[in-house]
Design goal:
elongated; nine-stranded mixed beta sheet; four-stranded antiparallel beta sheet; Rossmann fold; alpha/beta; single chain
């Protein structure tokens, strides 16, 4: 269960242009020690304020002051500029770039916010990593969101908040079994449109999530 780190421990952070709690981002940067940082468009502003020097900068930069871009051009950090009218969001472009580095994991900050269409699109991006066996998560101060195609374990000491919600990312998730949870399940089929998987909690040090078929969207959340 999970992903092997035996041959690759490269961890990439994408700082995108949605809502960012900069105190949370700073604590994440201090704790995780990322191998590579990619700033996507307005995410560059938070990176700059926190002195988190990006390794790559991408976007159309419609909301980034020219003097900020000039600063990083002078430091010879690779900057890829795209037109505003394009087929991919700035976050998608940054995510594609991260995948080319064949990392073990990708974390996205600034991928949630008031634009729910962007948030949902960013959750969909996680599937690109899952298909390649790369662990990818969207993080903010209240949420950790990731996808799973195979059974897995959640450790309580590493949990991002008190609540765990499991929703079907595919139309159905078959044979879903939960152990170590306040509300256990024993081999049910979870179908799109059901709220059964919302707001569960761990009662043991680890929770086992097992299923036979489908894709789960996992939300570790706090109020």
């Amino acid at each position: 269960m999970g992903y092997s780190t035996e041959t690759n421990n490269k961890r990439i952070l994408i700082i995108s242009g949605g809502y960012i709690d900069e105190d949370f981002l700073k604590s994440l940067l201090d704790k995780e020690k990322y191998s590579l940082i990619i700033a996507a468009d307005r995410g560059l502003l938070s990176a700059d304020r926190l002195n988190a020097r990006p390794d790559y900068i991408v976007g159309d930069f419609d909301s980034v002051p020219k003097e900020i871009l000039s600063k990083y051009k002078a430091e010879e950090i690779p900057i890829e500029t795209f037109p505003r009218m394009k087929d991919k969001t700035d976050t998608h472009i940054a995510f594609d770039m991260a995948l080319t580095h064949n990392p073990w994991s990708i974390d996205l900050v600034g991928a949630t916010g008031s634009r729910l269409d962007h948030t949902i699109s960013n959750i969909d991006l996680l599937m690109l990593a899952e298909n390649q066996g790369i662990c990818a998560s969207i993080l903010d101060s209240n949420n950790k969101i990731y996808l799973k195609k195979n059974s897995f374990i959640i450790n309580k000491e590493n949990q991002h908040g008190d609540f765990i919600s499991l929703l079907p990312f595919s139309f159905q998730v078959k044979g879903l079994k939960l152990t170590g949870f306040k509300y256990p399940l024993n081999g049910i089929t979870l179908t799109a449109g059901s709220s059964l998987g919302i707001s569960n909690e761990l009662i043991l040090d680890e929770g086992r999530v097992e299923f036979e078929e489908g894709i789960l969207a996992v939300y570790e959340t706090k109020d």
